[in-house]
Amino acid sequence: MARPYSLDLRKRVVSALKSGLTCRQVAQNFDVSVSSVVKWSQRERLTGSPAAAKMGGSRPYILESERDWLLSRIREKPDLTLHALLLELEDRGVKVCCDTLWRFLKREGISFKKNAVRDRTGST
């Protein structure tokens, strides 16, 4: 992942801008993009510091609110296909892509392979 520019550089850019240079001149002098100069000066005005915002972090899982329903639905009907489950979710007002549902089920340890379905249904 890319790293943010140093706070020292950001402060020098903002002070050069305050001294009367244009954004383009400052960008050329410090070898940064014009959009960076504009964003840093805006951040300075809004927060009092041109420091970079926090990067990364964890995002909440989209299907976490539907976890209980999904797991109980698979227990009720273990031979449901992934696409049938997607349609049922859509009926509940939750629109996600197939990959999102697949990753959720994988995290829960649920597989849609034939042998796994046979094991879940008790068929031989």
Question: Mind summarizing the main beta sheet?
Answer: none
How far apart the termini lie comes to: 48 Å
Round the mean pLDDT to the nearest integer and report it.
Answer: 88
The helix/strand class is: mainly alpha
Enumerate how many helices there are, as a single number: 7
Shape: rod-shaped
Strand segment count: 0
Q: Compute the CA-based radius of gyration.
A: 26 Å
Residue stretches low in confidence (pLDDT < 50, at least 5 long) are none
Number of domains: 2
Instruction: Report strand %.
Output: under 5%
The share of residues in helices is 55-70%
User: Order of helices and strands, N to C?
Assistant: HHHHHHH
Précis, in short:
This protein has 124 residues and is mainly alpha-helical. It contains 7 helices and no strands. The chain has helices at residues 7-18, 23-30, 34-47, 67-76, 82-91, 98-107, 114-121.
Description:
With 124 residues, the protein is mostly helical. The protein has two domains: 41 residues; 60 residues. It is built from seven helices and no strands. Helix 1 packs across helix 3 and helix 2 crosses helix 3. The longest helix has 14 residues. The mean pLDDT is 88.
Which features would summarize this protein structure in a list?
124 residues, mainly alpha, 2 domains
List strands and helices in order, with pairings.
Elements lengths: L6 H12 L4 H8 L3 H14 L19 H10 L5 H10 L6 H10 L6 H8 L3
Helix pairs in contact: 1-2, 1-3, 2-3
